Structures are given as C-alpha cells and as structure tokens.
Prior knowledge:
There is one protein chain. The protein is 33% helix and 26% strand. The chain has helices spanning 11-20, 44-48, 61-68, 113-118, 125-137, 150-165, 187-199, 241-244, 288-307, 342-355, 359-372, and strands at 2-7, 27-33, 37-39, 58-60, 71-74, 79-81, 86-89, 92-95, 98-101, 106-107, 142-146, 171-175, 203-205, 210-214, 217-220, 225-226, 229-233, 237-238, 256-257, 263-265, 268-270, 275-276, 278-279, 282-283, 320-323, 330-334, 337-341. Strand 14 and strand 15 (217-220) form a beta hairpin.
Amino acid sequence: MKHLVIMGGGFGGLSAARYLSRYRDEVAVTVIDRKNTSDFLPLLPDVVGGRLPSSAVSVNLHDVARRLGFAFVRAEVRRIDPSRRCVLGEGREVPYDALIMAAGSEPNYFGNQAARQAALPLNTARDAGLLAQKLQEGRFKTCVIIGGGYTGVEIATHVWRRLRAAREAKAIVIVEAASSILGALPDWMKRYTLKTLDTLQIAHFENCRLAGIDNGGVRLSNGRVFNPALLVWAAGVQAPACVRSSPFARGAQERIRVDAFLRARDDVFVIGDAAAVMARGHPLRMSVQFAIAQGACAAANALRHLRGARLRPYRPLDPGFVLPMAHGRSCGTVLGVRVRGRLPTFLHYGMCAWRLPGLAQKIKMCKLAVQSERVS
C-alpha cells in the first residue's frame, strides 16, 4: 500500500485527509502537526473579544484521525528530503510515496527579536486564550497593535468589544508602517473601516513603526510612548521554517511556487498559506476557502500520481471575503458585490457555522450571528 504524508492539520491538510478517507484500501495517510489540535482561525478574534472560550475553536487531531482513519504524528517538521522521499523532525523520519505540504504560516517579526519576545501574536487558539487573559488582567493603559492589515483591524475591534463589556477606559492604537491601513484592499473598504475605527475611538497611525520596547512601555517612530502597554503583533506572516528551508523555489512571504496541479515536484504538492498559487499574474491571498479547495484538489492529484493517472489542474473559485468587525458592522465583497453593515457579519458567522464540525458548534455560531445584529 502506498503511503501519503500530509504536513499540517489545518484547513487544507484536513480537507486533503477527508478526501483521502474514501480510499483507505488504496493509500495509508499520515498527518504530521506540531500541535495536538486543529484551530479554527477565523474565530480566534472572538476568543479575544470574549465571545468564545479558546476550547471552542479547536478540535483534537487524535479524534479526527480516528474518525477519518489516518495516522497522526505530533512532531515539528525540521526538514524535507525529496531525494530520499522522507520528512524529518524531532529525531524521527516519516517516509512517503507522495507528500502534501499544508504547513500554514507563522508570524513574521522581520528580524525584530525584542518584538518576538514581548509581543503577543494571534496565530493559534493558545495565542487567543493568552491575549484574552492579558486583556482580562488589565495591567495596561493602552493596547498597541502592530499591523494595520486585515488581522490587525479585526483584533482591534474585538479588543474594543472586551474592554467595552468590562467598562474599561483604556486606549487602543493600531500602528501601520505603510501609508494606509488595509494594504491593497479597495479604497471603499479603507474608508468604511477608517470611519468605523473613528466611531469606536480606535486610534491609528500610518507611516509609523515600532521603535522600541522599554520596561513595559512601547515607543513608536512618531515619538509617541505608551506605558504601560499591551503589545500585539499583527504585522504580517510568512511560511514556517520547514517551508523556508525546503529545496523548492519560493516567492513572496517564502511561499513555495507550484504549477497548475499544485506541485512543487512530481511527488510533492503544496497548498494553503505555504503555496504561491498564481492567478492573473498574482499569488492568491491566504484564505480558508482556497486552502480547503486546494486540499481536496491536491489529495485527488496525489492519488492520481500514485496510480500513474493524468492530473487535473486546480481552478480557483473566489466567492469573496469579509472583514468582520466586533461591533457587528462589517464589510467585504461577496460574489463580486460590495456588502457593508450587518449582512457581511451574518455571512461571516454563517460560513463559520457551515464549516465547524458538530451540531452544537453550528448552533452556537448561528446564535453569534444573531447576537451580532444587536451590537451597536
């Protein structure tokens, strides 16, 4: 029996494993992840905002493995050896006949070791729980969020929600190095978001960087100093170390370049945040819907490769995206149509309900969607 290894138990990796569960008599599957859990990343901000406990946004990979019939290995992959067709990590080797790399992404500190040590990221359920705990402890006057992109803005509104619920009069500041927040997103979304931030009294500094971290305080390049401060890092992500050290060609954010069939080479497929999948001359953005679709496509192509059959190209379908904000009024594009206000918030939680496993979790998401309508 052929052996297929999946690196990563996130959306893309589990999508691939779910597809392959139908072919248990043909291929043995092993999923490798450094955590015991698969975290539902779109809901991490809701943990920060106090709407969900961190346990509600994770599923145990051992349980998923039993249900879908794959082997699960908890280990951090250190290196991939394509010549020997094996994955190496923490004193062990896992051989493969085909490999699907679904390693996700990790925070990029751009060489700032002080920020790496002092700032709180939001990349896992554990990160979300720790940030929620720090907010509850309240040992700060200002929450400083480095990064004014999609994640930074979403975090800021959920911090606002938690502080508002606790009736804490603390400041929230977003710091963005570029000339505007939200990067390359459309201008109408930037205007809508800036108006929202002003309404929620969330300050934002553009053309500004973190200049220093001193004794619990934060110093910015514009001369502003906040002390004591709670520092949150949302300034960008990159492919994890095992991807950056791989022998495959890489592009922006160290994402591996793949062909139309999601291959880095004949027996190695790359999906999700780790893959630079080109569409109209640009790599697709990192998103849950792309990772899930790529997982199924890569699994099907890996199986075809093992059978010696012809592969089928991945054809991305982009239904759009929503920038959810914790006061219940969000914005985004759905099937090419601009949406603002309560509708995109409802769609966000509806999509989360659809993707979450278990009826109880789906019901909870539906309740959150309804409750979001009542937040002013």
